Each structure stands twice: as C-alpha cells, then as structure tokens.
Amino acid sequence: MMNLDKQKELVTAGPGTPAGTYLRSFWQPVALSRAIGEGLHRLTIMNEDLVAYRDGDAVRLLGNRCPHRGAALHNGRRLDGARVQCAYHGWTFDAHGQCVAQPCEPPESTLAARVRIPSYPTLELHGLVFTYMGAGKPPPFPRPEHAERTDGVHNTNVVTWNCNYFQCLENNPDPMHTAFTHPSMKLWTKSVPRFEIEETDYGIHMRAIRGDYVRHTYFRLPNVLSITNEYWQPPTHVTTWIVPVDDTHALTFRWFFTPAPNWRVRLKAHLAWRLLQHRLDAIVDEDKTVQEGQGTIANRSLEHLGNSDRGVVILRRRFQEGMRAPRAAPAEAAVVET
Amino acid sequence: MMNLDKQKELVTAGPGTPAGTYLRSFWQPVALSRAIGEGLHRLTIMNEDLVAYRDGDAVRLLGNRCPHRGAALHNGRRLDGARVQCAYHGWTFDAHGQCVAQPCEPPESTLAARVRIPSYPTLELHGLVFTYMGAGKPPPFPRPEHAERTDGVHNTNVVTWNCNYFQCLENNPDPMHTAFTHPSMKLWTKSVPRFEIEETDYGIHMRAIRGDYVRHTYFRLPNVLSITNEYWQPPTHVTTWIVPVDDTHALTFRWFFTPAPNWRVRLKAHLAWRLLQHRLDAIVDEDKTVQEGQGTIANRSLEHLGNSDRGVVILRRRFQEGMRAPRAAPAEAAVVET
Amino acid sequence: MMNLDKQKELVTAGPGTPAGTYLRSFWQPVALSRAIGEGLHRLTIMNEDLVAYRDGDAVRLLGNRCPHRGAALHNGRRLDGARVQCAYHGWTFDAHGQCVAQPCEPPESTLAARVRIPSYPTLELHGLVFTYMGAGKPPPFPRPEHAERTDGVHNTNVVTWNCNYFQCLENNPDPMHTAFTHPSMKLWTKSVPRFEIEETDYGIHMRAIRGDYVRHTYFRLPNVLSITNEYWQPPTHVTTWIVPVDDTHALTFRWFFTPAPNWRVRLKAHLAWRLLQHRLDAIVDEDKTVQEGQGTIANRSLEHLGNSDRGVVILRRRFQEGMRAPRAAPAEAAVVET
After folding, report:
1. To the nearest whole angstrom, how far is the Cα of B142 from the nearest Cα of chain C?
2. What is the number of CB-based contacts under 8 A between chain A and chain B?
3. Which of B104, B191, B261, C232 is the most buried (most CB within 10 A)?
C-alpha cells in the first residue's frame, strides 16, 4: 500500500514538481518525426504546452504561450527564417525562443531583446523526436543499443493513454501480467513464468522463465523499457518510453528494431509490420483495459502487493530516490546490456 | 429553507456517510434481473463500484476493485465455479469475495487466504435484484404486499435520473405536483386535490382527495413509495425504490402488479404493459423535466416551503432522524397497509 | 503583469461580485429581439438564470428559479395575462415577478403575496433587448448616437465566446491586433498603424493612423465599443456590447447602422448584410482563435505588456475604479462623440 501523499508526488509531472524535475533531467521523446512538418504543431508534454515545427534538418520546440498577452503560438504563423509569429500582436520568436520582433511596439523599444520563451533542444532517432526539458546543459543523449545498426528494419509508433502515466510505468517492470492481460498473445498465456528480478545501476533486470525459454526485460529509470519480442517472427527489439502528457493522459513511444541479415528476413519484417498491426493493436487494447481500468489516477492506498510486484516496489523506491537526487550522474548514460 | 450543511449530509450516500449508512441498513434494489447474465456486469450503487453476475439460481454481487493493484474486476473473466479472475495478474475470487487464487504468487504464499473483497447477499423478487450493503447480519427482507400473489401480472422497470437522488426522493411524498407536472395524465390535471397527510411508524400516508375519489400514497422510509395507479386500466399497484448511483445520478426501480381475476383482465394487463409504454415514458419525462431542472444537486437554501410540502418536510425530518439512529429496529419490517 | 487575485476580481461577474455589481449598474443587452417570442426562453446572463418572453409590446425578463422548490421556470407554462406557471406545483408569477397563485396552497394562505422573483425592466432598440439588472431605480437608457436615424439600415447579431468575457473586453481598446489577427481583412494587414490613445470621461478614444487614414475607436466603460467600419462599403457604424454569460462564456451583441442617403445605397447595404456574412464570420473566427486560445480564463500573471497595450492598461484601471465606485454618476449617460 502507498499513502495518498506519497502517491500524489509520483503522479504529477508539471514544471517544478519532484517527478517533473526528475523526468526532465533525461532526454524524452515528444513526437513521431513524421508528425512534425513545416507548420506549427501543438504538443502537451509533462503539463507544458509546446509548439513544434520542422526547420530544415532540425525540429524546433518552443513554449506555446506568447509572453505578451498569453495567446497560443500554434495559432500563429510560421515565417521565413524559422521564426514564429503570434496571431495576436505579431510578436515574433526565432528558433531559439528569442523575441526578435514586436511590430506594434515603437522602434526605440528595447522590450523584445529582453523577452524569451522556453526553447528546448531536439534530436531525432529512427523516427522519434527527443528533447531535453531540464535545467542546465543537456546531458549526452544515451544512444540505445542497436541505434546505429543498418542491418535491419526500424519502426516507431505512439499510443495515447487515458490515465495517469505512472500506472503505465508500473506496468513495465511487471513481466507476470502477460499471462492474464494478454489473451491475444496465446503463446504466453499458456503458463505463468517463474520470475527473477535483479536491481541494477540503471534500474531493473527481470527474467521470466518458462522451461528453457527465458525472456529478459530491462527497465531503465526513470521510464524506459527494453525487451526482445519473440512473440512474432522475426524477433524484434522493442524500446518503450512512457511520457506524461498531463495528470490524466500519457504517451508511450516505441521503437522497434528487427535485425535482418538478408533480404528475405528484411521483407518478412516489412510485411510483418504492415500486416500484423492488428496484433499490436490488440495487445495495446488489452493493456489499456487494465491500466485505464485502474482509474484515471489509480488509488494505490487500497492495494495489496505480493511477490509478483517486486518490480513495481523497486520502481517506486528508485523513482523516489531519483526525485530526491534528480541531478546526480544521469542514469541514461548507463549502457544497457541486452 | 434548509441550510447548505444540512443539505450536504442528505445528498451524498457513499460508504461511511450518514445517508449512505442509513440507506445501507435496508435491502435495496440494484438491477433488473434480466440485465444480469452469466457474464460480469458493472454497477455503481451509492458511490460503490460493483460487479454482478448470475451463478445458477443466485446473483452474485462483489466489489469491483481488485485489491491487488486496483484493476476493475468487470474487465476480467468469469471462471468455472462462479469465480471471477482479474485481467491484470489473475487474482481469483469466489462468489463470496474470498480470494482463492493468486497465480503469480509463489505456492507457499499465504496472502490469498488473507484477502477478501466486499460481497453482498442478493435475492430476486419479480424481476428485481435486491441486496443488503449494510453492516452486520442482513435484516429479514420485507416482502411487500402482493409479492406472493399469482393471480395477476408482475412487471418491473428502471429509470436513470441525471440528478441527485434526494430530489427524486422528495418528489414522492408529494401528491400535489401531479396536477401541474403531468399534462400527459389528463384525468389528474383537471383538479388540484385536497391533501391529507398522516405520519406513521413506517413513514407517511397521504390521501389526495378529489370529490369521492381518494388516492392513497404510502411512503416507506427511507426510500420506498407505494401507490395504486388507476390512471390506466386495469388498476395497478406500483412500488418504487429510489436508489443513489453517485451524487449526481439516481435510479428508480419500479415493480408493477396488476391483479387479474380472469384471463380477460390478464390479457388486458399484458397488452397495456406492451402498448402503453409510451404513456409511462411520458410521465417519467415530465418528472425528469422538473426534478433534473432543479439542478444537478438542488440548492434548498433558496426554497420557500408551503402547506403542499408537508410530506417533504416530514420526509426530511424522518430521514435525518433515521441517519442519527440508523441501526434502530429496521423500518422495513413494518407492514405497509394498502 | 497582473497578480491572480486582482485578476480573479475582474473575471467573475455573478450577483454580488465587484465586477458583477459594476456591470449591473448599466443597461446591458441580453438577447436578440427576434429570439424572444411568446414562449418561455431560458437565458444566462452574468451567472444568473433568467427566463424571457414576449408580452405584447414588452419583453418580460424574470429570474428562472421558482422560489418554491427550485424548479426551472422555463420548463413551465405561459398563461394568459403574461403569467408564468411553474411545472412543479403551479406557482404562478405575473410579468413583474409577483407570485399571484399557489394552487396547491389552501385558500386562506397569505404566502403568495409575500413571494416575488427577480424581475428586470427591458427595452428594445433596433433588434436588441436591453435590461437593467442593478440595484435601485434604473438609470436613463443611454440612447447611442444614430439610434434615432431612419435614413439607413439597422442590423444586429450575437456571438457566443467559449472563454471569459474579460479577454473579449480587452480585445476592444486594442486597435493594433487587427494587422496580425485578421488576415481576412486584407486592407488592414498591409501595415501596422500608428496608435494614439486618449483617456476620456466615458472611457478611451483611440486613433489608429495609417497615412492619411485615421480609424477612430471609442471604448465606453464598462463594456461598449463603437467603431466605424470602412472595411466594407457602404461604411457602417458598429456598436458592440460584451456581456458575461458565466465565468467561461461570453456574448457580444453588435448593432450595425449603415447610413443610406438614397435607395441605391440602401439596397447595397441590404445586399452587403445578406451576401457578406461570411466575411463577418471570418473576422469573428479570427478573433475567437486568439481570445479563446488565451485559455478559458487567461492567466494574466505571465504577460508582458508593452506600448501597444496602453488601452488594455487603461481599461483595467478604469474598470477597477468603476468597481470601487459602481454607483457614481453612470457613465452611460455620457454622450459619445463619433
């Protein structure tokens, strides 16, 4: 069980909150690359309104609130030179958030030079846009294993959850639920695995053991899960980031890498991605049923944890430790062995 | 008028509240029998999430929250032996709420034996499922008059109200509103009755007198109304229970009994039920207009009560007395004379 | 910037609030004349529920809550003699809000004589229904300039805003936003005007200067804007009232007068009104984008005001002064020079 005050700290990730500060000390995915074009796109990430747009090779990410009178910048205009112009009085910001024009102010005004909006660095990896929304200089981006590989097929997707992000998070260091939550994964429902768990520097390493078959799950704090999915063929490495939208919505971004030593496997991987989406959808629907069914924000004060929840217990403790010391050596730098 | 604090106590009926405890000390209808099948049905009654299912001759009624991690049991599975299995980690409960399996826990675990969810006794009467959600041993079920009769036609229905239950309740010891609220009941709108009211052990007995015609209304505390409806022929005894869903929704369950001394009247009663539903619907719509129009939760601090509200005044006083002494000799045991 | 407490006082206009009392000390439009017929029409104005109906030459405007048990009067019946009967127990009110019948009360009852509901005086002007909802005797209605003219075409419309009224209000003493908010007004977007502002007895006089062309804007406290629109031909005088519905919705009532010295101009004015509605709609949509985009209730604590916001600053100061001394000589009596 968890008292409601402790829980409250975990479930809200706005600017300045303990969980929000902790999550912001890591690079986080915020959008699919293909969703961000030249125009202005509104995003909400960790209770912050943002506007994103493509600027040549870069994705720009700014705060969405005009500091003049509070209009939403995504309603404005994209100008040449990657500038954004507010639709209310024309205040204009460059790609780094500096106010560069206030056309309704007199020429001698020095106000523009003193006005900035938040601007966040971005990078793209295999179809995901990442950003760093924390304080200070961004830490190095932790390139995941397989990120550089060209001998295979890379894919990504995103799912919106109508519940608090922390219950999505808790579903990850939890290899036992598969047998009950996922009837669509017939193979797995045949048996409850033996479950070994090991706390590591980067987070949690779990082994779900069914006879000779061992399935490894790597949970990297604060919010990244790596598994190798042998549920369909060819086997695919799946990395999942769980990101809060606001207190009652979350996103999961997934990056799939299928090694393909030859054209036959590569073709098979492409076909699987196109033809088997309904199976991925079914798994997600099953997860949504239980996680959203826990309530918009789950009430953890009524729960009874058991042996199967060892991963959840470790996650909560380590996440709380992370909130207390959010600026320690960033865990993302850790190499995840797979 | 009624100050807002007093009113607040009347309008919320969750577990542990004065009104909730009082209402829970009586058997209450929670569903139509025909709505509950073998599968898992979610209900909300008096701010409690419940799951109901049919188990041979019995209807089972359990709390809907899995005590493990808070998943909703109605998303789970019905297993053999009237067991319910949670869709998250397979915790399984028998028909009495005892946890009988935790397949993700090690064999030596004793946790299951110590875990129970709320389980409520049920009984069915002429198409209504009743339960007792109070503390201690259930009181005897007060079989209403006519309950045993086979010389007639029994019917039931349920209506959902988009407002607080207490304003539905107050509409009952109020025989005067008919003349103004129900233009569809043409006969009644011709005249305002003379209105006699008598406080009784079980609650309130009202007489609406129009010349030689006297219409009796029996209100049994805390929430049951009995009338004989001569609005359509053949005359029909109607018993209504008003049950809170949550603070802003309520249900009325109605049981109709039409005595039918011969096959002609029986046929007529069957036809009336099938062909005259639109007239019942019209009456309900007229009632919804005024009761929901009082506001989601009516503000009683602005009202001006008159002679016609004697029933409402008695209801409130007796309901408040009932809340203060909720475990006194249960009023349901009283025989209602009709 | 504006701290949140000060802002809170400006944005809520219910009965008894400083802003609500101030606005109520002026005649306000509440409906289009053509929207009010013989039947009962529900309105919400400044957080008050009202019922309006036509009674011969007059529009009647009463509080919508029956003081008996709180039913909504608009669900009731219009009776002969301009009376309104509640649908619950038949309490009946005359056109001035006096309770004249309580048919469920005994004949000797004197309760009716002591019961009144709010009743507000009304008058109509060129298709708008105005009322005075303040305390005491209504001030004289300030007949706007051009009100008496018959040498032209009068029109009116109303728009509902899904945001707080005060951000609609702030958009008015703000002639600069046109260049950026209204691409549909091509002529205007060509240049940012020079902007002169003058505080006056009645409020604010602004001049937007583009070369030889000077556009005058007259803002009359607390909530009336007068401009002459030369955006389309023939030139049209537009008077706008901004009226709160509740904290998150507002109405703007507009009265358009196009002087027409001959039948050719008159015909042109009629055709323009009928054929160019899509251009008015476009302007409104552009305004809605920025004003609703500021948030349901804008957060003014984050803003950075500049030279272009002089009108907004004066509006806020004068509105706050008006709230502090709401019953001073009513500013509506001032003659607006145009």
Report:
1. 32
2. 72
3. B104
